[in-house]
Amino acid sequence: MRYVEEFRDPVAAKGVLAAIARVADEIGATRDTPVHIMEICGGHTHAIFRYGLDKLVHDGIEFIHGPGCPVCVLPMSRVDECVELAERPEVIFTTFGDAMRVPGTRKSLLQAKAEGADIRMVYSPLDALELARRNPEREVVFFGLGFETTTPSTALTIQAAARDGIGNFTVFCNHITVPPPIKALLDDPHMKLDGFVGPGHVSMVIGIHPYDFISETYGKPIVVSGFEPLDLLQSVLMVLQQIRDGRAEVENQYARVVPEHGNPVSLAAIADVYEPRPSFEWRGLGEIDASGLRIRDPYKQFDAEEKFGIGYANERKPAPEPEGCACGAVMTGRMKPTQCPQFGRGCTPDMPLGALMVSSEGACAAYWTYGGARHLEPAE
Ligand code: SF4
Questions:
Q1: Is the pTM of this model over 0.85?
Q2: Residue 275 and residue 298: Cα distance in Å, rounded?
Q3: Are residues 287 and 172 part of one domain?
Q4: What are the two backbone dihedrals, phi and then psi, of residue 253, each rounded to the nearest 5 degrees?
Q5: Final residue belonging to a domain, choices 313, 332, 355
Q6: Where are the alpha helices (DSSP H) in 145-228?
Q7: How far apart are the CA of 62 and the centre of ligand 1, in A?
Q8: Residues 183 and 173 both lie in one domain
Q9: Residues with CB under 6 A from ligand 1
Q10: Are residues 79 and 159 in the same domain?
């Protein structure tokens, strides 16, 4: 296939859907005894709802929406720390746009900006570095947020800042890694997970072998997937075929983009600049060992936590979730967004209570965007 339309071909999709139904019947999947397949990545969640795949697949397949949205898994305490940094008079705080509306305990970055904080949206950490060059009298902080997909660009920017001797640029590092939370979910006795659709963009950087533990230790299949409807349907079929055949392997449906061993240039930049933190707090999952990255000693001058004495460099302030908010349960696949009592009532895209409603990869945003109020069950 060469063109994106070919990955959306309805005739081909019908063929794959029929194959999914056959295998689902063979393994005895029904609406009452479904196969639980977690799509780890929030981009996959949105693609599933955008194309209505949840409705098109066999009744016996239940999609569980995983924690693969970096904005959503960020705990409120980290949003509070962003606001604290942004409100310093000497700071120009730079961020990607999708973090602007995420609620903190007191306010979001958007509200802080409305109140006068110097917060600027950028498209790349290099834009933030350029701002630092042009504003030598100010401190420019970049909000480094994301999984392995975005970590290399922040690492390369820190390397550039070091090379050019830029002294007024730092990164508030919230980069996280995919495998540890998956392990935490698999260790949770309350989770029912039969297989995984693995993240495409993250795997482009790390390759497919960091998921070996899922098949080798936990005996579950995982298929790294692309983002078009036929990619996702084929990946679901591959997961089902593994279950039917009694196999548990790491397979790569997205081989046109994902190299088996990842991207060596990106991996080298990450290894040079970052090291695992002892632990990092995730919304809904709590502290998970070695799940976050921090800046290594040779680059410490670019670490905003060290420079400004906040976050893990200081005593952290706990920030409980707002009352009635079920973000943690949705984030970990225990609850569907529409089962949250706040969905469409206390929490909408205009008045969000949780990050999942405003992030472009959030599960609640996906339900709202592609079904909106139709998902609302009558209030009791
Ligand atoms: S509807 Fe709002 S409060 Fe409920 S889980 Fe989603 S984002 Fe969180």
A1: yes
A2: 11
A3: yes
A4: -75, -25
A5: 313
A6: 151-164, 179-187, 200-206, 212-216
A7: 20
A8: no
A9: 325-327, 330, 337, 340, 342-343, 347, 353-354, 356-357, 364
A10: yes
At 89 the three-state DSSP class reads coil
Pair 83, 185 in one domain: no
DSSP 306-353: HHHT-GGGSPPPP-PPPTT--HHHHHTTSS-GGGSTTBTTTB-SSS-S
Question: How far away, in angstroms, is 331 Cα from ligand 1 center?
Answer: 9
Alpha carbon 65 to its chain's center: 11
Q: Residue 260 C-alpha to ligand 1 middle, in angstroms?
A: 36
Same domain? For 171 and 184 the reply is: no
Q: For 61-79, write each residue's pLDDT tens digit.
A: 999 999 989 999 998 999 9
Q: Is residue 369 part of a domain?
A: no
Q: Based on the domain organization, do 276 and 159 belong to the same domain?
A: yes
Residue 355 CA: which ligand 1 atom is closest? 7
Q: Which atom of ligand 1 is nearest to the CA of 357?
A: 7
CA distances from 255 to 24, 120, 224 (A): 25, 37, 9
Q: What are the φ and ψ backbone dihedral angles of 33, each rounded to 5 degrees? A: -130, 70
- Using the structure block, give the residue that is written with the tokens 């709202």: 368
The last residue of a domain, from among 252, 278, 294: 252
Copy the structure tokens of residue 265. Answer: 């240039």
Same domain, 90 and 169: yes
What are 76-98's pLDDT values in tens digits? 999 999 999 999 999 999 999 98
Please count the structural domains in the chain: 2
Distance CA 252, CA 242 (A): 13
323 located within any domain = no
CA of 334 from ligand 1 middle (Å) equals: 13
